[in-house]
Amino acid sequence: MKKMIWTLALFSTMSCHTSNETFNANLALDYCTHQVERALEALKDSTGTIDYTIAPRNILENDTAWNCRNACPQEWCSGFWPGILWMTYSYTHNEDIRQKAKSYTEALGVLTTQPVFDHDLGFLTLSSYVKGYEATDNPMYKEQALRAADSLATLYNSKAGTILSWPRHVKDYGGHNTIMDNMMNLELLFWAAQNGGSQQLKEIATRHAETTMQYQFRKDGGCYHVAVYDSISGAFLKGVTHQGLADSSLWSRGQSWAIYGYTMVYRYTHEQRFLDFAQKVTDLYLKRLHETSNDWVPIWDMDDPNKMQAPKDASVASVVASALLELCQYVDAPKKKVYYSAAENMLRNLSSMRYQSRQSNVAFLMHSTGHYPAGTEIDASIIYADYYYLEALLRYSGSLHP
Ligand code: GLY
Q: Hey, which of 119, 256, 384 would you mutate to test ligand 1's pocket, going by the most ligand atoms within 8 Å of its Cβ?
């Protein structure tokens, strides 16, 4: 253990874009506010009206404005833009931003009243209704988020001990499938149990985290993107990939969902086994990051043979930076230093001209990779990269507590 801490501490001071200076989060937050204002202007039509039923998703290479998608259950990213607006409002107290956050959030209302489409109802609700509730205390938002949590829980299979992530892919995978991304969506269940919902939601989320920990990781702490279980008996069948290079490769975003997910599970359960596991998946990530990147932003899959030449995924650095700023609060002093300094270095690099979009487009960040094997959103600005970047900046500045 001592050796691992020492190694991590060493490379936290070796990387070429590493500095001992404190990172200026306020400068980055002001930049994000400016980009939000520019994006809102660009989202207006010729009459100055915004269509709140479509939400920003990506900006592809050489484009300057957000490509928007219908806010429907098949579109897993529709909540991130309202979430960015709620976070920007909490930072600026700008009334116009609050109004727009409200309009985009309420355009998602249908998601909380119709049967669940898939596990992404968690991402959709946490970033819109839950963030909106935290910002305004609006009881309607709480009610809608609680309803969404109950709906998400209907995907739980008690034999397998996990939520069915993709009901539409049961046949393709030959059984009950659970993807690593689903770890993020357990937060809706934990949040609901803590905010007037059934305690069974917490039990489901805890069991899901436990089962996933048991089956969906290799010995070294690297995760399989998809775990397949027998739908009837619940027996674990196989671990495979969907968005990674290979079944056993380290798909960077999958690992980032695990880091954030287990840190969040510890927040709600206070169970040491989850904290230990959050550190295990983080330590592997940092070790592999050091081997395959020189700027704290990973390549899309850490087993890509093109190594440093492979496309980057800035969204992963955003998710991990945000998670580490939480994780560092739960661990002992030497590790706290390692995780905090890693998060700081991630934010410093993301905030450099290499990754910030600045005048190139209206997003915060460039160079994320959505789905490399499908050839979509490669080297793009993607809305969730911006969402977790902003969340990490607010956590770093001390104005957002997990
Ligand atoms: N949750 C989908 C992804 O990470 O691409």
A: 384
Alpha carbon distance 268, 291 (integer Å)? 33
**Is residue 181 among the annotated active site residues?**
yes
Contact (CB, 8 A) for 17 and 354: no
Sorted by where each begins, the domain ranges of the chain are 1-50+252-402
Q: CA triplet 31, 36, 41: central angle to 5 degrees?
A: 130
Ligand 1 pocket residues where CB is under 6 Å: 76, 181, 243, 253, 370
Report which residue type is found at 71: A
Q: Spell out the per-residue pLDDT of the chain, length 402, in tens.
A: 444 443 444 334 334 356 767 899 999 999 999 999 999 999 999 999 999 999 999 999 889 999 999 988 789 999 999 999 999 999 999 999 999 999 999 999 999 889 999 999 999 999 999 999 999 999 999 999 999 999 999 999 999 999 999 999 999 999 999 999 999 999 999 999 999 999 999 999 999 999 999 999 999 999 999 999 999 999 999 999 999 999 999 999 999 999 999 999 999 999 999 999 999 999 999 999 999 999 999 999 999 999 999 999 999 999 999 999 999 999 999 999 999 999 999 999 999 999 999 999 999 999 999 999 999 999 999 999 999 999 999 999 999 988
Question: Which CATH class, in words, describes the domain spanning 1-50+252-402?
Answer: mainly alpha
The single residue of 45, 51, 118, 120 carrying the catalytic annotation is: 120
Can 120 be counted among the known catalytic residues? yes
Neighbours of 50 (CB within 10 A): 14
Which atom of ligand 1 is found nearest the CA of 370? 5
pTM: 0.95
Structure tokens at 82: 């309202």
Looking at 51, 63, 181, 332, which residue is catalytic? 181
